Amino acid sequence: MATAQLVASSISARSLPSFEGLRPYTVNFSSISPLRQGECSLRSVRGLVVKAATTVAPKYTTLKPLGDRVLVKIKTAEEKTAGGILLPTTAQTKPQGGEVVAVGEGRTIGKNKVDISVKTGTQVVYSKYAGTELEFNGGKHLILKEDDIVGILDSDDVKDMKPLNDRVLIKVAEAEEKTAGGLLLTEATKEKPSIGTVIAVGPGPLDEEGKRKSLSISPGNTVLYSKYAGNDFKGTDGSEYIALRASDVMAVLF
Questions:
Q1: Does pTM top 0.85 for this prediction?
Q2: Dihedral class, residue 67 (left if φ above 0, else alpha if ψ from -120 to 50, else beta)
Q3: Averaged over 46-62, what is the pLDDT?
Q4: How far apart are the C-alpha atoms of 16 and 36, rounded to whole Å?
Q5: Fewest 10 Å CB contacts: which of 35, 67, 75, 188?
Q6: 220 conformational bin, left if phi > 0, alpha if psi -120 to 50, beta if neither
């Protein structure tokens, strides 16, 4: 049986069609060794370089989002801890916030025109994996749909967040320190709780006519929520918070 071999000395995005003003992702394979039958090794791939953000050419100085999209200038990642210790790049927390610098014209629902609910200059928090990153005007930006914005945050403390749409901000209950039998739990063995107290709620989702439907959850409610939902945050006092959609709240506890 013949042995299949793959040899590629160079694969570059330059061979792909490009659009004026947008530089394509760069993917370079400097060396891929021939593969023997039944063998696959990561060592056979060297020099893999992937550039994640789309770069907008300097000649373009204005970017106008369309529809219900929003352009956010990403907040710079923290380079030091609260104690002043420099963090390596790999340990820096990926920011989930920034300043709105441009908004689209909104969208039409039914017969009604719905404007974007955030204005330019607003400080917002967005979902961790939302949108498309851009290198634009010398800074890092994110273009995303309005629905991917979790809330407005004008301070440095997440407890002050104002949720948008159907989002809910919850202060997570502290994990149990002991088992039912009285054994102390280590940090590694403490189960992440799915219970917390509602701190703030959004104005509600839009119905088929573009009108707001208020949420059935209120600040002060103790709720049970889906374990793997939402975005986690830590307050300035060390408390854990989570922002999630109201549909991820399963029950109110009394």
A1: no
A2: left
A3: 73
A4: 29
A5: 188
A6: left
